[in-house]
Amino acid sequence: MDGSTGQDVPMEALRRAMAEAAAEVDGALDSLLPAEEGEERALFAAMRYATLGGGKKLRAFLVLEAARQFGVARASALRVAAAVEMLHGYSLVHDDLPAMDDDDLRRGKPTVHKAWDEAIAILAGDALQTQAFLVLASPETHADPAVRADLCLALALASGAQGMVGGQMLDMAAEKATSPLDEGQIGRLQLLKTGRLIEFSAEAGAVLGRAPDRARQDLAAYGRAIGAAFQIADDLLDLTATPEEAGKATGKDAGAGKATLLGLYGPERARAHAEALVTQAKRHLDDLDERADHLRSLADHVIRRRN
Amino acid sequence: MDGSTGQDVPMEALRRAMAEAAAEVDGALDSLLPAEEGEERALFAAMRYATLGGGKKLRAFLVLEAARQFGVARASALRVAAAVEMLHGYSLVHDDLPAMDDDDLRRGKPTVHKAWDEAIAILAGDALQTQAFLVLASPETHADPAVRADLCLALALASGAQGMVGGQMLDMAAEKATSPLDEGQIGRLQLLKTGRLIEFSAEAGAVLGRAPDRARQDLAAYGRAIGAAFQIADDLLDLTATPEEAGKATGKDAGAGKATLLGLYGPERARAHAEALVTQAKRHLDDLDERADHLRSLADHVIRRRN
Questions:
Q1: Read out DSSP for A197-247?
Q2: Residues B227 and B191 sit within 8 Å (Cβ to Cβ)
Q3: How large a percentage of chain A has pLDDT more than 90?
Q4: Contact across the interface for A160 and B127, Cβ inside 8 Å
Q5: Interface mutation target, options A152, A188, A207, chain B, most CBs of B under 10 Å
Q6: Is B131 close to A156, i.e. CB distance below 8 A?
Q7: Is residue A266 part of a domain?
Q8: Is residue B108 part of a domain?
Q9: Is position A12 within any domain?
Q10: Host domain of residue B134
Q11: How does residue A284 score in pLDDT terms, banded at 50, 70 and 90?
Q12: pLDDT, tens digit, for every residue of A27-66?
């Protein structure tokens, strides 16, 4: 789509870096998840299936690239990156359940409750959430217990009732609401549902690096802005991509009357808004040197991707 | 039932102490759970319903009594006690789901998916788990970040794939197995499914009090032993109590061919085994003074209770 512009060189480098990081994160996940053995093996297999070998691992990449700004040891950053993907994976497994979004397909493969059954999907999601906190709290992740406790606290704030799960609840409530949500309500819904975990991912690199508060806030703000842009891009993709391109069912949101900025603004204004968010995101990186170039390219990539 | 023995004085004191502690823990839960307001209020209401005002709060009591041995501030211990009850509450909400045990009644009230719906039950369980880690990782729980990280790590080990959720998976696999489990398999199943969280509850008091390793190990061993005794007592209760006494459906386990030591041993030998576990549990308290008397009475209580 974006075949011949001058932007392609950094974008190609970004794609390569993301693919390399995703492979490294898969390696970390493989070593941090229970091996597929014993009487519980179906549980362990489902946990691995939900996290390994699929997806762009955007959140993990954010952790790694943010951590790079502060000279964090790669092994530490990879553990935190894997933990974020476990948390994200749990949320997808539970979101796909029949009582929730009832999806049969995820990343082009059967969802966990289709490949196994609902009970195993519930348990695998539960255990992936626990495993994320286990990894963050482990001494191997960082020698300083204050960093470990801080990571656990920040992840819990981002992903629980006041974060991701709260956002999921808002989304369900919106589908049943009689009047459409306004801009502020949609913004809050999406900040909670997907934004907070993306924000955490960028911020976690600064926490790992014991960065000054200001740098930590900048990375969090960067994460929030690209999270919001990502959501709009996702909605545009749902509208325009084929299921093959997206690797999942598309066109469902419009049909379900989902509360999105795209629905409120229309495609043109939504795209302009996403572009403004990307500009804003990059401005939060102004204090960082060229080591942050991948983070800059990522902001651009977020609204140009096709899956 | 145990109307006229000399043991009744400490047992009555224990009952009073447990009731007082349960009320205090309810107060802590009330302040640590999101208030029932906003568009997400059904989620918050379900989280509160699943944890507040019901149950014996055995795990919370263990945290509080263990913490008392090491002079831990009551406010700290209460936060950890509340966190354990959130974790336990999440496990009950998910266990009760139609795809799992499919129970309509819990503590004499409709289960969360009956009172609301399945989606809210899934989300409320998810958010209760997160909230437990949030509380443990918060600076208000303990000034020392090493204690907070240690609590998060220990809870994650006790409750995830290598603990409670793994045990739940073993239990499901056992129901489908063609040959019955042996003693060792049943012991492992129950240690994971219920034992580890009870063990954590006793151990957490020692972690909060930065107790020496030896004291921490003693409390963990005490918790493991009463956890195992508790499980046998629970199975005996399921066999003999009426649904009114137990506050939930009874007689289900035998019908479902559940893997229990009671099923393997029969009532008499199972009861003798539970009594041996109680003796063993109390022996792990030998280094503690009379402040541990409630923990000693609790060990006795575990196998004498009627609900």
A1: HHHHHHHHHHHHTT--HHHHHHHHHHHHHHHHHHHHHHHHHHHHS-HHHHT
A2: yes
A3: 81
A4: yes
A5: A152
A6: yes
A7: yes
A8: yes
A9: yes
A10: 8-302
A11: very high
A12: 999 999 999 999 999 999 999 999 998 888 999 999 999 9
